[in-house]
Specification:
The complex is a heterodimer.
Chain A: H1 12-40, H2 49-60, H3 67-75, H4 100-103
Helix pairs in contact in A: 2-3
Chain B: E1 3-5, H1 15-23, E2 26-32, H2 43-62, E3 67-72, H3 82-91, E4 101-108, H4 114-129, E5 133-137, H5 144-156, E6 166-168, H6 176-181, E7 185-189, H7 198-208, E8 213-216, H8 228-238, H9 243-258, H10 269-276
Parallel strand pairs in B: 1-2, 2-3, 3-4, 4-5, 5-6, 6-7, 7-8
Classes of the chains: A mainly alpha, B alpha/beta.
Chain lengths: 104, 278
C-alpha cells in the first residue's frame, strides 16, 4: 500500500517544547497508579494479566521506534479464530496470554 | 472551520451538545444505529429506535442548523442473539427509503463470535441487495486487531461490493493499514480513553496521510466528547499543519465518502437555517 504521509511541521525541539509537560504529567500518573496498586498489595501486580501486560508495555517504551504499534500488538488478542460462544459483553483492555484458554 | 461528524450517536446527547457542536462549526452528523448500553428485549424496541433516528432526530438537529443523517443496522453488541437479529434485519428494509438514511451501519463484531459473524455477513448481503453503503464498527481494545482482520476478510468475500462504498470505523494504529490497503475508507473515532485521542489521530494522519480517512467524535452515551472533532482541528493547528489539510480531513473527505449516497447533500448555510427555524 502506498501512502503519502503528512509530516509534522514542527522541529524536534518545538515538539519537545510543546509536548513535554503534558507527557511528564502522564508519566507521573502511571507511576502513581502502579504505586497505588502496590500499596494495596505489593504482590498483586504479578498476578493480574492486565498489569503483567502493562509491565511489558512499559518495557517496550525503551524501543527505538514503532512503540505504539508494538504496544497495540502486545495488548491484542493474537488468535485468528472466532469465539464459539459469547463469553462476556465487553473487552478488558489486554489479552490474557497467561490463562489456560490462551495456551490451548 | 466547518466540519462533519460522520459517527455521532446524538440520541445519547442533549440539545446543549447540538448547540455547542453548531457553534464550533458542525454542519452535519451521520448517526449509526448502535447499542443503547443495555439489551433490548424485542424487535419492536429497535423499530421505535429506527423511527427516532429517521423522524425525530433530524428535526432536533435542524433546530441547531445541523443536517442529520442515519444508518440502519443490528448493532454488534446485540448481534450474537441470532433470533433477535433475524427479526431486526427483517424490519430494516422499510426504513431504507427514508430521505435521511445513507446505508447499513454500524454493523460488525464485538467479541468476535461465530454468531456475530453470521449476523454481520447477513447485513452485508442486505446492503448489497438494497444497493446501500456500509459503515462498519470494529471491536474494542484487545479484540480490535482480530475483529478487524476477520471483518475485512468477510468483506473481501463479496467481490461485487465496491470497497469505496464501505467505511471501516474505529481504526487505530495497528488496524488502519489493513483497512486502507483493500480500498475501504477508514474512520478515526476520538475517545478520551478507549480509542484514539486527537493527538494520536494527528500522529496517524502524519504517518498515513489524509487519503480515505475521516474523523469523528462518536457522541457516545459513555465517556466521549461531542467537541472531539474541533479538538482534533486544534491539535492539527497546534502542530502548524496547513488549513487545507485539516479541512480535507474534517469536511472534504466525509463529503466525498457520504456523497456516494444520492441522499447526502450539504445545504448552503441559509437553507440549513431555514429548516432550523421551522
Amino acid at each position: 500500500m502506498s501512502v503519502t504521509p503528512s509530516p509534522n511541521p514542527l522541529s524536534p525541539k518545538e515538539l519537545v517544547d510543546e509536548y513535554f509537560i503534558e507527557n511528564r504529567t502522564k508519566l507521573l500518573e502511571i507511576a502513581a497508579f502502579l504505586d497505588r496498586v502496590d500499596r494495596a498489595d505489593a504482590s498483586y501486580a504479578g498476578r493480574d494479566f492486565r498489569l503483567k501486560a502493562f509491565a511489558e508495555a512499559l518495557a517496550g517504551l525503551g524501543r527505538k521506534a514503532s512503540r505504539v504499534d508494538y504496544i497495540q500488538q502486545l495488548l491484542s488478542d493474537p488468535r485468528e479464530v472466532p469465539l464459539d460462544a459469547l463469553d462476556r459483553k465487553s473487552a478488558l483492555g489486554a489479552y490474557d496470554r497467561w490463562s489456560g484458554e490462551a495456551r490451548r | 472551520m466547518k466540519y462533519i461528524d460522520h459517527h455521532a450517536h446524538m440520541v445519547s446527547r442533549t440539545t446543549d451538545d447540538y448547540q455547542h457542536m453548531s457553534l464550533s462549526g458542525c454542519v452535519a452528523v451521520t448517526e449509526p444505529a448502535f447499542w443503547a448500553g443495555w439489551d433490548r428485549s424485542h424487535a419492536d424496541g429497535f423499530e421505535d429506535y429506527f423511527r427516532q433516528l429517521t423522524d425525530f432526530e433530524p428535526k432536533r438537529a435542524a433546530l441547531y442548523h445541523i443536517q442529520h443523517y442515519a444508518w440502519m443496522a443490528m448493532n454488534p453488541k446485540e448481534a450474537d442473539d441470532r433470533v433477535l437479529s433475524r427479526e431486526v434485519l427483517g424490519r430494516i428494509p422499510k426504513f431504507l427509503d427514508r430521505p435521511t438514511v445513507l446505508g447499513i451501519g454500524e454493523i460488525g463484531l464485538n467479541r468476535v463470535t461465530r454468531n456475530e459473524i453470521e449476523t454481520y455477513t447477513e447485513q452485508i448481503e442486505l446492503a448489497i441487495a438494497h444497493k446501500q453503503m456500509i459503515l462498519i464498527h470494529t471491536p474494542h481494545l484487545e479484540d480490535k486487531l482480530k475483529g478487524t482482520r476477520i471483518s475485512v476478510d468477510v468483506l473481501r468475500g463479496f467481490p461485487t461490493l465496491e470497497p469505496s462504498r464501505v467505511l471501516v470505523d474505529h481504526a487505530e494504529e495497528h488496524t488502519l493499514g489493513m483497512i486502507l490497503e483493500h480500498g475501504y475508507w477508514a474512520g478515526l473515532t476520538l475517545y478520551p480513553q478507549t480509542k484514539v485521542s486527537p493527538q494520536r489521530a494527528a500522529d496517524i494522519v502524519e504517518r498515513f496521510g489524509p487519503d480515505r480517512i475521516c474523523i469523528a467524535g462518536a457522541c457516545d452515551w459513555g465517556p466521549s466528547d461531542s467537541l472531539a472533532v474541533p479538538r482534533f482541528i486544534m491539535e492539527m493547528r497546534r502542530r502548524k499543519h496547513a488549513e487545507a489539510l485539516i479541512h480535507r480531513l474534517v469536511f472534504e473527505n466525509p463529503v466525498e465518502f457520504l456523497s456516494q449516497s444520492a441522499r447526502f447533500r450539504i445545504r448552503p448555510d441559509h437553507e440549513r437555517q431555514e429548516v432550523g427555524s421551522r
